[in-house]
Amino acid sequence: GDSVTQMEGPVTLSEEACLTINCTYTATGYPSLFWYVQYPGEGLQLLLKATKADDKGSNKGFEATYRKETTSFHLEKGSVQVSDSAVYFCALSQGGSEKLVFGKGTKLTVNP
Amino acid sequence: EAGVTQSPTHLIKTRGQQATLRCSPISGHTSVYWYQQALGLGLQFLLWYDEGEERNRGNFPPRFSGRQFPNYSSELNVNALELEDSALYLCASSPRQRQNQPQHFGDGTRLSIL
């Protein structure tokens, strides 16, 4: 079945450092890809999405590009802030089944 | 626009009891999804309801069930509670034309089994 593998955490960075969280997927067909973020004590918020190969999703300084040739959707940010501290989840969905398949999550801590 | 709302925020039960969790989707959304976020197991898909019908089900036993009402709100019922049912239960919704549309999540119900 479909699956998502993302970089194990935790990741600890200093403010203004560069961030990359790796995400690769296994799926039949052409899934849609998502990054969700979960702040402490809250549910998931959609961070960005991409629906076809070579699409780039972006939001709040975060970016990710749908790479079909490498089946990857890595999350990047050039300069992280303390407020970016959260758990980040990579996910995919297939039309028809509609369910989201999540990676295990990567906890990011940004220190001032 | 109000987001997805879930109630209660916290629920404490004992083994063998039954729990009912509630979810109201974003206005105009017809699909409701339920996920379980348990420690060490990550986020797992439970159920998908659309237009009042169960459309898909994850790999969970039959004691996990639910329904969707005519106003598109939903209930998740868990019978014969077990200790391993302790988790954060997240509800999400999406609009009628779901293709490529993201799911929007509520803040969850924390279910604790004593």
Which structural class do the helices and strands of chain A define?
A: mainly beta
The radius of gyration of chain B is 13 Å
Which blocks of ≥5 consecutive residues of chain A have pLDDT under 50?
none
**Assembly type of the shown chains?**
heterodimer
- What is the rounded Rg of chain A? 13 Å
Give the CA-CA distance, first to last residue of chain A. Answer: 41 Å
Total number of strands of chain B? 11
Stretches with pLDDT under 50, minimum 5 residues of chain B:
none
Tertiary shape of chain B? globular
Summed up, the helix count of chain B is: 0
Quick structural summary:
The complex is a heterodimer of chains A (112) and B (114). Chain A is mostly beta strands.
If you had to describe this structure to a student in words, what would you say it looks like?
- The complex is a heterodimer of chains A (112) and B (114).
- With 112 residues, chain A is mainly beta.
- Helix content of chain A is 0%, strand content 51%.
- Chain A contains no helices and twelve strands.
- In chain A, the strands form three sheets. In chain A, strands 2, 5, 6, 10, 11 and 12 form a six-stranded mixed β-sheet that branches. In chain A, strands 3-9-8-7 form a four-stranded antiparallel β-sheet, with no helix packed on it.
- Chain A is globular, with a radius of gyration of 13 Å.
- Chain B has 114 residues and is an all-beta fold.
- Chain B is built from no helices and eleven strands.
- Chain B has strands at 5-7, 10-13, 19-24, 29-38, 42-50, 53-57, 64-68, 74-78, 87-95, 104-105, 109-113.
- In chain B, the strands form two sheets. In chain B, strands 2, 4, 5, 6, 9, 10 and 11 form a seven-stranded mixed β-sheet that branches.
- In chain B, a hairpin with an 8-residue loop joins strand 9 (87-95) and strand 10 (104-105).
- Chain B is globular and about 40 Å long.
- The N and C termini of chain B lie far apart (37 Å).
- The model of chain B has no long low-confidence stretch (mean pLDDT 93).
- Chain A binds chain B through residues 32, 34, 36, 41-46, 49, 51, 89, 93, 95, 97-105, and chain B through 4, 6, 31, 33, 35, 42-45, 48, 55-56, 58, 90, 92, 94, 98-100, 102-108.
